[in-house]
């Protein structure tokens, strides 16, 4: 079995987890399991890109999760593989939250300071 990737969380993800706890403590457990599955390479999410409704998340991925047995899955982990998709060693979690209204994706765009429609693809301003 391949070695696990390291996990990093943007500081705001702790606020995301607190918000989940306010809905249901078990959602926090489900989110942490999903992140652990990513780092352990047991699951991989869908690649994201530029979307009119949420912005440009090129280079990011999302993984669905919810309470055990709940379908459809209502929550998402938005993350990216670092240093690159081709040779990752770290899962960087950007945002965690409900999919409804695309809020989790919009929050990820804001956190990464992506500028949708900049003509150059997703560019991180914090570098």
Keywords:
single chain; 127 residues; alpha+beta; YaeB-like fold; 5-stranded mixed sheet; two-stranded antiparallel ribbon; 3 helices
What does the model show?
The protein is of the alpha+beta class and 127 residues long. It has a single domain, classed as 2-Layer Sandwich (YaeB-like fold), CATH 3.30.2310. Helix content is 28%, strand content 25%. It contains three helices and seven strands. The strands form two sheets. It has a five-stranded mixed beta sheet. A two-stranded antiparallel sheet has the order 3-4. Helix 1 packs across helix 2. The longest helix has 15 residues. The protein is globular and about 35 Å long. The chain starts with 5 loop residues before the first strand and ends in a 15-residue tail after the last helix.
End-to-end Cα distance? 34 Å
Overall radius of gyration:
14 Å
Can you say what the CATH homologous superfamily is? Answer: RelE-like
What fraction, in percent, of the residue positions are helical? 25-40%
User: How many separate domains?
Assistant: 1
Provide the β-strand percentage band: 25-35%
Spell out the helices and strands N to C: EHHEEEEEEH
Give the helix/strand class.
alpha+beta
Number of strands: 7
Question: How is the quaternary structure best described?
Answer: single chain
Uncertain segments are: 114-127
- If strands are numbered along the chain, what order do they take across the biggest sheet? 1-7-6-5-2
Whole-number mean pLDDT: 88
Count of alpha and pi helical runs: 3
What is the top-level CATH class? Answer: Alpha Beta
**CATH T-level topology:** YaeB-like fold
